[in-house]
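Order emerges. One example.
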Amino acid sequence: MRESSVDFHPHKKTHRATLSQQSNTLSDISCDTQASDIPESDHSETEAAGDITEDRVRSEFGQYGSVWEEKTGERSAVCPGVVGRTTLLPDSEWEREVVAINLEEDVAINIEDENAGHIPGEPLKTLVSGLFLVTGFLATTISLSLTHDRVPDTKPLPDIVLDTIIYQRWGLDVSEILLMISTGTAFLVVILHSHRLIILRRIWLLLGILYYYRAITMFITVLPKADETYICQPRSDNITLGLVVNRVMTIVSGGGLSINGKQVYCGDYIFSGHTVTLTLGYLAIKQYSPSRFFLLHWASFLTSCCGIIFLLLGRGHYSIDVVLAYWVSSRMWWTFHTMANIREVKDGGEHNMFRGLWWWHAFRYFENNIPGPLPQQYSLPLPQFVMQAGRRMKKTEGDSEGVGS
């Protein structure tokens, strides 16, 4: 047998990391491994795998900045020339260290709540919104003053609800009492809110828009009285400016309610103002009172529902008036507040379909400086100097008690 002249020298290695281990598991390489014991081909293969791994890990943890360099430097000091043990996801202790170092050295992060900042009240905008509400209410009263003389003298229209229930003469009065309770409660909730000026202008803007809608609907289509027993003022064949002004003043003095005897003009159908007020009253209480006040929310909901039921029992409106008023007012409320709570919707981008709303520009004017949902914060509606004086007095009393003790 021919003997081979090639000498075989086995390499003494405790462990050699394969390409799959370097790229996936990144296992430990013993510090006993000698670089001279590894063939050049294997060594180049190991270095290539190490480069791939390091690039991959750097891309994964690039967000941690200089911390990766510190960690790899520490491991290189222990085992020079060897990539240390890592995992694709850092352990919780290292992650906390990384976040702490970044917060202290690398970046400055503002961790304050967005709503904790100052939200401007902008009283001038609230005043403008109030004036818009006044003009809407005047438009409704003028429309009713003109519609009164066009009411047809015929029997009530067929109505499946009114024809089914038993007429109760006192129903309209009870409905208006519940309406005043709901409105008073909503006003109390709003006035105790720290951002009362913002909420007031929102409600006034919505009410103004709804009043304009009501003025249009009652004027273009005039329906006969739903209650044949309701007494209206005699009609006039000669409409003059003085007569219209006199009628407007009469309606305004009674707040548009029948319980005080001031609402003596007929024709305000198609769009129920009672239903609008009851609906917005409940929505305002639900939206701007603390979420834990669920008993108040349910009480307000039942009050509004009962107010609408008694309104129909007293034949103050047709059923279609109630349905249209609820639908329009509730959808306007939810649409407005959704737009107000989402900052991006306030931008006039090309794909923002809310720009088609005719009150879009008014909305942007009133809500431009509101960053998002209003926080549930409450305070007494006192002038600023009174609040500051109270805080100073409280601080002085506390300091005097501390000295006395």
About this structure: Residues 1-38, 41-46, 57-92, 97-116 have pLDDT under 50 and may be disordered.
